[in-house]
Amino acid sequence: MATTREWLKPDETAKELLVRVLTERPLLLLPPPLHRLPFRVGNVVEIVGPSPSAKTLILIQAAINCILPKEWNGVEYGGLGRAVMFVDLDCRFDVLRFSQLLKRRLIGSRANVLGNEHDDFHELLTVCMRRFLYIRCYNSLEFLVILKTMHCRLQKEKETQAGGVYLLMIDSIGAFYWMDRALLSSSGSNNRKSLSLQCVVETMVQEIQRLLLVHPMLVLASKSASFGDKQSTTEVIRNPGKGSSVMAMDFRSGPQNLLHREYMPSVWQSFVTHRIQVRPSDYSCKYQNNATYLTEWLLPSLKFSDKFIINDDGLLVIL
Fold it and tell me: Which entry of 59, 85, 133, 210 is 20 to 30 Å from 68 by CA?
């Protein structure tokens, strides 16, 4: 019979626990403007802002950072060497633009290496592009079908590529919101549950949760939002449906009081672990030829904001 001392003996020390957790679920640092916080697989990061506010470009830069190798033939690229699953709900993604930005990153990393041979450039470009998995959906039902069948594709990628998919990107999560609302109001069906936005989003969240249990990934989702100037700090708008809280929230960022109207159902809002707000700025100064943007972390709330521009090479530069 085990003694009390043996029963209280720990299975592992605190140091061993930290080593195991950081090995199984390592911290992930993303490129600017997502560089302020470390992330882990299982986190759901929402990038919210009006259109245009470089949300898709932020996703692209994070994707490139993921698919680039850490090192290739003696050249340091600083990437993760992992695959990305990009689900395009906006149906405006430009693959040619993506490949051009990837080429510029490769050329920029190789430019400072003296005597570096460029014979393997196209081979490396091909390897990186194979790690970028692109899916386009035209309505919510297609998106749900993709999520329900994604396990097989992720398992296949895990077998063919070392480590499998590391980033799941959704651009943009609210793309079909108004379409679904219109279909619901015009259908005239008595079976409202099967058509409701709440039911669709609940199913979507459940399917993503199931995927994350089997395939640990970091989820990055962009979301379009509108902002306006208001004097009040909080204004609640009429609730359009069960679990769908449309709330106007005043986020003080700079000289203006910006009103961010939340329209996604609460099941999605509670699923999000991190949220960053991106918006255009009137800041100009010496960067008059480049649009300037402001970022602010809303979840968790950080007491500062970043300014960034997009340079001629399509890179985000923090000011």
Answer: 210
